[in-house]
Amino acid sequence: MSGLPLTNDNFEAEALNFEGAVIIDFWATWCGPCKAFMPIVEAFAKEHPEIKFCTVNVDDAPEIAERYEIMSIPTLVFLKGGELKEISVGSLPPKVLAEKAEKAFA
Fold first, then answer.
1. Which of 6, 15, 21, 34 is catalytic?
2. 5 CB contacts (<8 Å, ≥6 apart)?
């Protein structure tokens, strides 16, 4: 999984205090849909270096998942300047991911 892994120790500094756009991918190693969605997220991240991509393994950092009431994975959380802009549950086709990011970060 590419992207900066977030933990309880670095979450505030790396995600909440970041002034720009952040997409956080909530996932787990045992999650088949997460693994299937991973190449789509990674390709989107390569195409959009202006967006900071982070990951949260829900088993390693359940407190962060609880903060956003993550009940299903994969889930993407879109933040801008530390403010929640969008939450998207489930895998997305590349076009829909691009549309959600454009809307969230407009």
1. 34
2. 54, 55, 56, 57
> By the 8 A CB rule, do 104 and 78 touch?
yes
What is the residue type of 94? Answer: P
Q: What is the pLDDT of residues 34-91, one digit of tens each?
A: 999 999 999 999 999 999 999 999 999 999 999 999 999 999 999 999 999 999 999 9
For residue 22, what is the enclosing H or E element?
strand 21-27
The pLDDT of residue 16 is above 90: yes
HSE toward the beta carbon, residue 72, CA cutoff 13 A? 6
Domains in the chain and their CATH numbers? 4-104 (3.40.30.10)
Is residue 54 part of the annotated active site? The answer reads no
pLDDT at 62: 97
34 among known catalytic residues? yes
